[in-house]
Amino acid sequence: xxxxxxxxxxxxxxxxxxxxxxxxxxxxxxxxxxxxxxxxxxxxxxxxxxxxxxxxxxxxxxxxxxxxxxxxxxxxxxxxxxxxxxxxxxxxxxxxxxxxxxxxxxxxxxxxxxxxxxxxxxxxxxxxxxxxxxxxxxxxxxxxxxxxxxxxxxxxxxxxxxxxxxxxxxxxxxxxxxxxxxxxxxxxxxxxxxxxxxxxxxxxxxxxxxxxxxxxxxxxxxxxxxxxxxxxxxxxxxxxxxxxxxxxxxxxxxxxxxxxxxxxxxxxxxxxxxxxxxxxxxxxxxxxxxxx
Length: 292
Prior knowledge:
Elements: E1 2-4, E2 10-11, H1 12-20, H2 24-32, E3 36-38, E4 48-49, E5 54-57, E6 75-78, E7 82-87, H3 104-111, E8 134-140, H4 143-154, E9 159-167, E10 174-178, E11 181-183, E12 191-193, E13 201-209, E14 213-220, H5 227-234, E15 258-266, E16 273-277, H6 282-288
Parallel strand pairs: 8-15
Antiparallel strand pairs: 1-5, 2-4, 3-5, 6-7, 7-8, 9-14, 9-15, 10-13, 11-12, 13-14, 15-16
């Protein structure tokens, strides 16, 4: 893998961590093992990248054997091309280093064959939601369907509506959050509002107000990592129970109160528009009782 730098972008380890979507610690190990060369020379983690630098990465990924695992799946819809699944709380969508078992992908592979357009660790996965975000996901069973669904996401023609319980009382009935999102400069595992980040637009509408919280529904124009959680924290109303953003007290350890409630897309084969709805999980009602 070769990167040709056309501008000064800071430290080598930070640059590669962002480009390869891995931790800086992983990059450090690669540099120490001489798997990273800049202009054919060995460098250190803190090397400051210069305009015109050629960065060569010769890193062999560990072989991954993703095994099918029997799992109770809440399948809303299925045909020969797509599956719409209602993801349960606490389930990771696809395997990642250090976590190759118990994911939604493991369960789906036991159930049926999936597309391989997204690589061996993310078969069938067109889009994803966080482990402790519940709700609807569309999954592709073949590569033709995968490509068609991915194009809809890229063109922003899919429909996605979420429901969230947030801290504080939001006074206005509707709102729009337009703020770019990128990796946090302080913590690579987190996302943040970043002027150099990608465009991110979220619409919201108030459903119900409590004394210390507000139930809202949200529609996405874009699909950035942790978009809703970052945007709501940005406006001072972080998602209740979010363990990462907002740094508020938690009601319990069930994860953030965020649910992918509605999903709509054009079927890749029939070209008919399809829309699905998922009811709020029980944890929402349990936590909302704290604010009654």
